[in-house]
Amino acid sequence: MRGSDQQAYDRGTSLFSPDGRIYQVEYAREAVSRGAPSVGVRTENAVVLAAQAQASSKLMESESIEKIHKLDDHVGAASAGHVADARQLIDFARRMAQGNHLRYGEAVGVETLTKYVTDHIQENTQRGGTRPYGAALLIGGIEGGIESEDGEDGRPRLFSADPSGTPHEWKATIIGGGREEIQEVLEEGWHDELSLEEGLNLVLSSLREHDEEIEAHALSVSAITAEDGYEHYEPEEIASLLEALEDEAAGEEEE
Amino acid sequence: MRGSDQQAYDRGTSLFSPDGRIYQVEYAREAVSRGAPSVGVRTENAVVLAAQAQASSKLMESESIEKIHKLDDHVGAASAGHVADARQLIDFARRMAQGNHLRYGEAVGVETLTKYVTDHIQENTQRGGTRPYGAALLIGGIEGGIESEDGEDGRPRLFSADPSGTPHEWKATIIGGGREEIQEVLEEGWHDELSLEEGLNLVLSSLREHDEEIEAHALSVSAITAEDGYEHYEPEEIASLLEALEDEAAGEEEE
Amino acid sequence: MRGSDQQAYDRGTSLFSPDGRIYQVEYAREAVSRGAPSVGVRTENAVVLAAQAQASSKLMESESIEKIHKLDDHVGAASAGHVADARQLIDFARRMAQGNHLRYGEAVGVETLTKYVTDHIQENTQRGGTRPYGAALLIGGIEGGIESEDGEDGRPRLFSADPSGTPHEWKATIIGGGREEIQEVLEEGWHDELSLEEGLNLVLSSLREHDEEIEAHALSVSAITAEDGYEHYEPEEIASLLEALEDEAAGEEEE
Amino acid sequence: MRGSDQQAYDRGTSLFSPDGRIYQVEYAREAVSRGAPSVGVRTENAVVLAAQAQASSKLMESESIEKIHKLDDHVGAASAGHVADARQLIDFARRMAQGNHLRYGEAVGVETLTKYVTDHIQENTQRGGTRPYGAALLIGGIEGGIESEDGEDGRPRLFSADPSGTPHEWKATIIGGGREEIQEVLEEGWHDELSLEEGLNLVLSSLREHDEEIEAHALSVSAITAEDGYEHYEPEEIASLLEALEDEAAGEEEE
Amino acid sequence: MRGSDQQAYDRGTSLFSPDGRIYQVEYAREAVSRGAPSVGVRTENAVVLAAQAQASSKLMESESIEKIHKLDDHVGAASAGHVADARQLIDFARRMAQGNHLRYGEAVGVETLTKYVTDHIQENTQRGGTRPYGAALLIGGIEGGIESEDGEDGRPRLFSADPSGTPHEWKATIIGGGREEIQEVLEEGWHDELSLEEGLNLVLSSLREHDEEIEAHALSVSAITAEDGYEHYEPEEIASLLEALEDEAAGEEEE
Amino acid sequence: MRGSDQQAYDRGTSLFSPDGRIYQVEYAREAVSRGAPSVGVRTENAVVLAAQAQASSKLMESESIEKIHKLDDHVGAASAGHVADARQLIDFARRMAQGNHLRYGEAVGVETLTKYVTDHIQENTQRGGTRPYGAALLIGGIEGGIESEDGEDGRPRLFSADPSGTPHEWKATIIGGGREEIQEVLEEGWHDELSLEEGLNLVLSSLREHDEEIEAHALSVSAITAEDGYEHYEPEEIASLLEALEDEAAGEEEE
Amino acid sequence: MRGSDQQAYDRGTSLFSPDGRIYQVEYAREAVSRGAPSVGVRTENAVVLAAQAQASSKLMESESIEKIHKLDDHVGAASAGHVADARQLIDFARRMAQGNHLRYGEAVGVETLTKYVTDHIQENTQRGGTRPYGAALLIGGIEGGIESEDGEDGRPRLFSADPSGTPHEWKATIIGGGREEIQEVLEEGWHDELSLEEGLNLVLSSLREHDEEIEAHALSVSAITAEDGYEHYEPEEIASLLEALEDEAAGEEEE
């Protein structure tokens, strides 16, 4: 479909193009893939989330460009794309998680929470008078909450939510820019008995594949485990992890 | 009707073209036929649903691209087309099925449930300010629920719902891509005394006609029977069914 | 009015063209006349409704393309045009018929019911934000219900409702494709002392005029009588009626 | 104002053209003048309403193309233009007439009723999101109702309501096609001591001026008198009136 | 501003043009100035209102094209422009006048009433989804009602309300066509000790300046005085006033 | 930005142009600066407001083109621009002032009142479906009301409100046409110990700078003082003030 | 993306361009960067806010062009861009701060307050029928309020809110025009042990970098400290600070 024809169908969320596409959703996806990457890896007992975000000035507090957020004690999210849109989705997810405590007296399921969010996203792709969200999320956590251990519960899970409102579950994945190369690193490195430390290393090395110069202060990393719930890593912890990675890489090259 | 003329009438769901067509609905149908196929077959005592869905990465959990869903103990659905749109319809159908239990204290009829869904779809093709759903459903189950056995009840039924909101009942059919060839296989193979196993084989061989390389992990299959209600097949079960099919095909070729 | 000028006025239901036409309504009529025909004939004591509908596959259950519906014990309807739109009108009519029982404790009048439907259709031709219904109905039944016998009551009546929302009462008529030839057969064959059997024959021979190859399984036929109310004919009954017609025609040719 | 300029201002009811015209209202008037004529004549003690309407098939019940309607015991209306639009106005007028009985316990005034209708019509010419009504009405009756005889009451009155929502009172007038010639016959033949019979003759001869071939079955005629209220004429009565007219005309020619 | 540029800004009431104009309001004013004139003159103790309106047929009741209306015992209005729009404004003013009696137990002030009306008109020039009123009013009456005599009260006042919603108070003025010549006659003839009779003569001679052939039946005249409130003149009274004027004019010419 | 480009962004209040301008607001400002000027001067103990308005006919009552209005005992306003829009703002301000008495039992602050008005104006520049107000106001009065004398209270204050909804406080300023020359006169003549009489002279001489022929009847002048509150000047008072000014000017010239 | 293409996507807040941008938000940012600068600096124990605003006339009260506002005892804000839009945001923030006192009986957090504001801004970038806010804010204050001293509380914090609704936390930053050069001065001069006086000097010298001629009366400056809360500087204080800066600069040059 050529330019002038395409323009005929991309002016509203309530229009299909003749080939069955919804252009406004595809443009929102473009907004996501032009942003910095966020990566999630599920390990045997945890979910690791990491996001890259470069402050535009050294006077900017790096926490304020934070793209990883705690949603509840047992679940967190990483975002990519338009920051203000992502914040709305994060707020929406938090309200849903709180509402679950109030209504049912228990921690919301990771899958359930993801679907609340994707339903909300989808509605903005079908009704007129609004635009789709220009953001994607990774939602990771412990199914059933951190205090539960029966059946399905206690198991780490990782989901993505894209601007069309489609949820997917992953062993490991990336949203935002550099998708192809980062996903490749994840596919090569992932196995189902990853320890938490291995998961952290996999996340960081995948991001380094995309940006070799990556520095600790431009990274934020969290892990969610059944034992300790949502925990955020300090910049120093990230720095030493990066250093170890570099040593290892140097060692490998030497060999 | 040529290009520039057609464009005059395809910008909204609340417009007819001079030849009485609603283009937005036809474009939504196009969205469905560009997706992977989902097939349904009614056997003497069951309905079999199967869908093809290829994960974009080996790290994606294949259940999360699941296109077959349990709606109630006695009824399931397979979808084709825009995933996020299909999920909204699945959710709508589940709420309707639950509501029936609450209001009438009994399992919703398969036909009744299909018509709730198609009414909802049709409304989105007539009012402005929204677009049609870019998804189609197969809804299959046991009329009257799995515990009932009088009259009409206990009988397996299979319906389709398309983006215009038209319901049809089928002995066997396909939604999504590859319609022509798959429907042909179904027409050749279907008879009204199919056993469940024969139904499973018919579904799988029709999908293999469309994609010879089809693999078990890219398939999901469910059956709904009056005895056991909705049951989902494990990947290994699907794999052995596929294998048996191939052996048979090889055997036939040999002959 | 030439093409490009016409286009200026056919984009919304809330616009007249300079010559006082409402194009969206005319396009909806076009949608009706491109569909298969439905025929209604009023006999001395009954109304006969018949519709043609060809299943797109032998695996489609022909009842599910049914275009004749019971609205109440004493009244039925046949539709033509967009199937999903017609179903909405049928549902609307059923709710109105039920509401009449609840509110007034008696069966709704055939004329009254028709006017509820046409008022509803007209509203969709005047307000913005919606499109007209792309369907027409024949509504036939026993005025006053099947248990009543005083005055006007007990008398068979047949109405049509078109996409503009105009009701008309008929002795016999056709909606959908093939209007001219079918109406001609009806005009030739109708007289006011038709027996039910003669009515059935008139309906079927008018449809055969339009499509000589017509077969029983592609036809559905109902009759509404003061004695028995709404009754649907089995495919075998239709087949033997068609056969008798053919014999007769053959006989006439021989003569 | 030439074509392309005019088009700039005729796309909505909420727009004036630079010369202060509301084109959508003028197009609605065009819809009226392309329809068949309806005529009203006020006699000394009655109002006579007559409308021409040719059934499109001899199988159509001519009452169902009726364009003359009883609104209340003492008042009736004749319509011209889009039939479905006219029916909405007739229904609106009936509800207003009934409401008057409920609220004030008395028959609605003919002028009052006309103004309820024209106010309703005007609103559809000023707000966006709707189109004007494509119909005009003649409303005739006995001021104050048929049982009242004091003061103003008991006096026959005749009003017109056009698509702009302007009411006018008339001694005799015509809405719909053939306006010029019919109004001329009325102006020549009307005087203020017309008997009911003379009124009927004037109405019929004015319509015959427009269509010499006019036949009784394509005509409907009603009269509203203070004695008997609203009365509809049977086809036979109309036929004999027409015959008498023809004899008279023949007699005049002979002379 | 040339044609095509002007068109860019005249399609809605909610748009200013670059030179700060609201074209839809100006077009509504054009609708007023293309209508017949209505004139108001304030005399020492009264307000005189007169309007010209030619019936389109001698069978039209001239009262029904009445453009002068009683709003309350002590206040009346004359209109110019679109008749149906003017009627809405007259109705609105009457409801406001009645509401004042109900709420405050006293006659509404002439200025207050005018401002209710102009506020209502202005709102239709600012919000989208509607068009301005295509009508202007003259509102004249006795401030404080006809029974009051203290202070400001008892004093005759005359206001105009134009399509922008601007109120002005006048000694004498004209709305509708022929503004320039009629206003000139009023300016020459008005002085602040006019008797009622002199006021009537001034009104009639100003209208005669615009249309020399003016006849009594095409005129309607009312006067509002503190003694008698709103009074309408009979056609005969107007005829003899016109005659006297003509005699006078003839006398002057002779001299 | 050239013509055709500018047009792309000036059609709605809810659009920014690429250079961050809101054209509809700028066009509304243009509407203000094409009107006659209104001037306000704050003296040591008072605020003086003056406005020029030429009646279009000597029969128009000059008070009715009044552009200076009392809002409360201690505060008044002068307007410029579209008269009907200005009246809405004046009414809005009066309701706000009254509401303050009702809710808080005290006179509204001049600054508070101005901000109520500018908030209201701003809302009409951001939401769609409406246009900005085509009027500006000067709001002047005694902070805290005329009976209060503690702290801030009792102090005269003068504010302007423009079509963007921006409030400014002034020692002296002008809204409407002739802004540049009038503001210059005000800047030259203002000092912070102006007496009321000097303030009146400054206002009048600034207006004379803009229009040398200015006459008392085309002017309206009010002053608000802590002692007497809002007081309007009679035409004779204005005339003698103008005369004195002219004598003085003549005297100066002579010197 | 070239001009005419860009125009296709910048007409509404509810549209993405093909490269995932929301042009209306970018144009609103342009509105901000064309305004005068506002600067904020966080010192060890305080936040300093300063804004430049030149009065258009010496008769304008400079406080009325104030761009720094107290939001609560412990928090203030500086704005840049469209003044009327900024005032709406300031009002919104004040209501949120007051609401926090009412609902929770404690001072709102600086971060919480910022996020209330940015959520509100974001909503105006996603829904149709409105435009984004053409203003940015700096929000600075003492976390936890000025009376609190435990944990996080008592710590100064500074946030920015831009027209997309994105919040960022800063050590020091600038909104409005001259961003690049001012941010550079801030980056050079900031360290984490700044005293209040050093903070004031840094703010003023950064603004002087942008406009060498800057004068005290065109500046407004506030500081928020845990001891004294929000305090506004008098013009004389600012003047002497500027003077000191100039002396220092002169001293440095001499050296």
Features:
homoheptamer, 255 residues, alpha+beta, Glutamine Phosphoribosylpyrophosphate, subunit 1, domain 1, five-stranded antiparallel beta sheet, 7 helices, 10 strands, 40% helix
Textual characterization of the structure:
7 copies of one chain form a homoheptamer. Chain A has a 5-stranded antiparallel beta sheet, with helices on one face. A 5-stranded antiparallel beta sheet of chain A has the order 3-4-5-6-7. Chain A has a single domain (34-250), classed as Aminohydrolase, N-terminal nucleophile (Ntn) domain (Glutamine Phosphoribosylpyrophosphate, subunit 1, domain 1, 4-Layer Sandwich), CATH 3.60.20.10. The first copy, chain A, starts with a helix and ends with a helix. Chain A is an alpha+beta fold and 255 residues long. The longest helix of chain A is centred in the middle third of the chain and has 22 residues, at 83-104. The first copy, chain A, is 40% helix and 22% strand. The first copy, chain A, has helices spanning 3-7, 23-33, 83-104, 110-126, 179-189, 196-210, 235-254; strands at 38-42, 46-52, 68-72, 75-81, 135-142, 156-161, 167-170, 172-175, 219-225, 229-232. In chain A, a hairpin with a 2-residue loop joins strand 3 (68-72) and strand 4. Chains in contact: A-B, A-G, B-C, C-D, D-E, E-F, F-G. Chains C and D meet through helix 4, strand 7 and helix 5 of C and helix 1, helix 2 and helix 3 of D.
Q: Could you say which structural class the secondary elements and strand pairing of chain A correspond to?
A: alpha+beta
Shape of chain A, please? globular
- Euclidean distance between termini CA atoms of chain A: 52 Å
Tally the helices of chain A.
Answer: 7
C-alpha Rg of chain A, in Å? 19 Å
CATH superfamily membership of chain A, which one?
Aminohydrolase, N-terminal nucleophile (Ntn) domain
Got a strand count of chain A? 10
Domain module tally of chain A: 1
What percentage of the residues of chain A does DSSP assign to strands (E)?
15-25%
Strand ordering within the main sheet of chain A: 8-1-2-9-10
Determine the mean pLDDT of chain A. 90
Describe the oligomeric state of these chains in a short phrase: homoheptamer
Q: Largest sheet of chain A, if any? A: 5 strands, antiparallel
Regions with little confidence, pLDDT below 50 for 5+ residues of chain A:
none
What is the annotated CATH architecture of chain A? Answer: 4-Layer Sandwich
| Share in helix of chain A | 25-40%
CATH topology tier name of chain A: Glutamine Phosphoribosylpyrophosphate, subunit 1, domain 1
What is the CATH top level name of chain A? Answer: Alpha Beta
